[in-house]
Amino acid sequence: MKPSFAIVGCGKVGAALGIFLARAGYTPAGFASRSLSSAKHLADIVFSDQVSDIPWHVTRSANVVFLTTPDSAIEETCSLISQNAGFSDQAIVLHCSGALSSSVLSSAKTCNAWTGSMHPLQSFASAGYRNNPFKGIIVSIEGEDPAVKIAKAIAADLGGTAVTLLTEAKTLYHASAVAASNYLVTLIDFAAQLIQEAGIDRKDAFNLLKPLIEGTLSNIEKVGAREALTGPIARGDVQTVQKHMEEIGSKRPDLLALYKLLGFYTVDIAAKKNTVPESIIKELKRITT
Ligand SMILES: NC(=O)c1ccc[n+]([C@@H]2O[C@H](COP(=O)([O-])OP(=O)(O)OC[C@H]3O[C@@H](n4cnc5c(N)ncnc54)[C@H](OP(=O)(O)O)[C@@H]3O)[C@@H](O)[C@H]2O)c1
After folding, report:
1. What atom of ligand 1 comes closest to residue 121's alpha carbon?
2. Residue-wise DSSP of 102-128
3. Cα(14) to centroid of ligand 1, in Å?
4. What domains are defined for the chain?
5. What is the pTM of this model?
6. 117 CB under 6 A from ligand 1?
7. What is the atom index within ligand 1 of the atom nearest the CA of 9?
8. pLDDT at 217 (0 to 100)
9. What confidence tens digit (pLDDT) does each residue in 63-98 have?
10. What is the mean pLDDT of residues 247-258?
């Protein structure tokens, strides 16, 4: 039989977990949130009447407790539940933060519970889910062995693929996710601003760049990031990079530092590709420093 679960913090991730865990055959033990209405809304969807705005009223009877409050409230919420003997003996306590490790749940040890984190590598923008947002995604897990074991089973039952991390690696793991997602947005916005300077309307900028972006992603998938590098730095074309910098410096001086920094790190990739002579690599490094 699958374990019972409680959700504390019935927002976007809590709601998705509640709905799809219930559909996967896990028994809802109860739902708690800061406002009773959030807890009740989710409980109604999964036909449960176990709701409260006091977390330990619903967590005591659960085998697995998800603390899906905002990151800033996880540690304190866990402490409050622990102080009120709100975790059952051997309960599994999990949070879903990408940035925090399971160490923020250490207070649950006073209840003899096992702690872990289970981060769905997905963006949850809405609390209403027709399709399972866990299907096909990576779920990154770390923590104490019994918690990791259950979290892996849960991830698989939700349709995701579990990846285990070392607890001490959690911050760098999250920095990587931020670079891949948030900084990709920054990079595309940067490219869109430059193409606008070239006379293209802002509303058309993304559509114009999209085939190039998609082609690059496809190349990275096929041959890896290093081999996918093309363009002036990969060709060792110092003059073109110099011209870009002069033009950006004159038309958009506010964007020059970012262009140079990206160029500086791109030269490292070109150097590893071994297609540009050492002297040109040095010159590219000098002009982008
Ligand atoms: N959103 C994403 O894309 C995403 C992706 C991966 C992981 N995560 C992680 O998932 C967790 C939840 O994020 P979210 O986006 O679902 O946040 P959210 O939509 O803001 O939901 C958080 C919920 O917790 C309730 N809450 C706030 N403080 C509380 C407290 N002290 N005690 C009990 N409930 C409290 C909120 O208030 P009400 O009860 O008033 O509604 C809300 O329903 C975070 O750890 C986040 O890092 C989020």
Report:
1. 6
2. GGGGGGGGGGT-EEEEEEE-S----S-
3. 7
4. 4-165 (3.40.50.720), 172-288 (1.10.1040.20)
5. 0.86
6. no
7. 24
8. 97
9. 999 999 999 999 999 999 999 999 999 999 999 999
10. 98
